[in-house]
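Q: Hi! Curious about what diguanylate cyclase looks like structurally. Here's the sequence.
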Amino acid sequence: MNATVDTLPDAAGQSNAPDPIIDAMGRLVKFIFGPDRATRARTGVILLCAIMYAICCSAAFYAAEMGLMRSFAPRLLLATALPTYALFYVLVRFGKTRRLRDPNLMIPQQSFSLLAIAFAYTAIGPHDRGLVLVLIALVMVFGMYTHQPRQSVFTGVLAMAMLGVCMGVLSHIDPEFYPPTLELLRFELLLGTLPPLVLAAYQISAWRNRLSQQRRELRSTLEKVQALASRDALTGLYNRRHMQDKMQDCVRRFERYGERFTVVLVDLDHFKRINDQHGHRVGDEALVAFSAGATMVLRDSDTVGRWGGEEFLFVLPNTSPRKADIALQRLRDALARSQISTAAPTLRVAFSAGVAQHEPGAPMHRTLERADRALYQAKHEGRGRNVMAPPSPVTDVG
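A: Let's find out. The predicted structure is below.
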């Protein structure tokens, strides 16, 4: 029956069954780029750099056919690029660089690119090799949005040093193929154009860092504001407003998925007597001790909140009243063993509880009323006990 319902057409006449082509494409994307967003972004950068390098290698083969480059150079470039970028891809794709300060491996990638540019510069004829210097600008621009400021400076200095050494050494070894005057002219142009590009890359990297820092600070501030808006200042538990939202969310899940839940109203026994006999400071310590005990004993999926004064509310998903009773008994035992305050070493916290399971079709306030009546009954019967709310009469539901 469920399989039939899942494949019925929706209101627009379209089937709800997953498209096998789209599903296959999604699996292929995850297989190539990685299982999570961060890994996919990093492998995307690696593959983009590999594509750019492949285009440059293709241009190098074309230049060799035209006689503008020595014939062995394109093959050597390709032979080094394939294993290098395969290694980069494997390291990033399978998360081996995740804990590094440079998880995108941009510094190794750009160092390799600069080595390739320097080699290509030595392999091109005297009058055409200046074209290769344009690729340095491409490397710098690509790193503007991924590098830290110091990394941008490092890349620029490395580029000038590598090309400067190549120009100086080669013009000294073979002045006919590498004319010293032309090499000096090109190096002067490099010195005149690359530093401003390095400065621009540094500034953009610094601005990006400041923006990232501001976003982190804003996110942290927002989290603190949300915590203040949803938490009780004394106990650290959720406040009444958050618990109301939590219950409405549970009602929606119950109506949509049939996920039953139970609410428990808890009231500390003789709390006024604690304040009168020991003072409000000990009373506050009693509230904090109860909150800590409830947080420790209940499950991570359960939600505990301060409903008001010495009254607390538990929302227990996928929990029957019988299981809620067991959890409350564990909490009662834990509190019986816990010292509340050094000012009153023998003082212990006791509580009464009303337990009600949410019923189909019932509004949330009806469930709370049932739990409240059960709590009143627990108080009336002598305190220190749990009372299960009976099911609502059929006429009361809805």
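A: A fun detail: The longest strand covers residues 261-268.
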